[in-house]
Amino acid sequence: MKKRKTQKIMTEHAATVNKKYKEFVERIVDTNAVWGLTKDETWATSSSQEFEDTEVILFWSDKAGAAACAEDEWATYTPESITLVEFLENWCVGMYGDELLVGADWDADLSGKEAEPLVVALDVVKQLKAKDKTLEFTQYDSQQEFEEQVIEALDGE
């Protein structure tokens, strides 16, 4: 009986985390901004809950979410925003190369979705298309080229 109850709680937690992740993607597409916590060019990171020896860089869909986590070791960090294009081109692509994960809209208890950066990038592109929005990329000829290269990289894994 106890095992079944634990499984139900874990399933509910996973559903909540996935719902918050979907909302994260929707919000950053709507606002064209992603938030992090920074101090002297250093961004807030945490150890992965899922993978040993893996770092997670934390991002939020709004300033309030980032500010809510500016406590304890991040008490001196401040919320900073970047554009959605910068997040996709520089952060997601760079984090993929560095084998880092994206922490999306983590709460003050430092729990939330850990996702592969190129999967996040693809989810954002899908949401952009669903909203009929097109971003002006600086390092790619078009949003379509960015999407194609992300898919190619993921297929190559």
Describe the model.
This protein has about 160 residues and is of the alpha+beta class. The protein has helices at about 1-30, 65-70, 85-95, 115-130, 145-155; strands spanning about 35-40, 40-45, 45, 55-60, 80-85, 100-105, 115. It has 5 helices and 7 strands. It has a 4-stranded mixed beta sheet with strand order 3-4-6-7. The protein has a 3-stranded antiparallel beta sheet with strand order 2-1-5. Helix 1 (about 1-30) packs across helix 4 (about 115-130) and helix 3 (about 85-95) runs antiparallel to helix 4 (about 115-130). The chain is globular, with a radius of gyration of 16 Å. InterPro entries: DUF2750. This is DUF2750 domain-containing protein.
Q: Please give the alpha-carbon distance between the first and last residues.
A: 40 Å
Give the % helix.
Answer: 40-55%
How can the largest sheet be summarized? Answer: 4 strands, mixed
Which word captures the global form?
A: globular
N-to-C order of helices and strands:
HEEEEHEHEEHH
Tally of individual helices: 5
Which spans have pLDDT < 50 for at least 5 consecutive residues?
Answer: 1-6
| Share in β-strands | 15-25%
Strand order of the largest sheet: 3-4-6-7
Oligomer: single chain
Radius of gyration: 16 Å
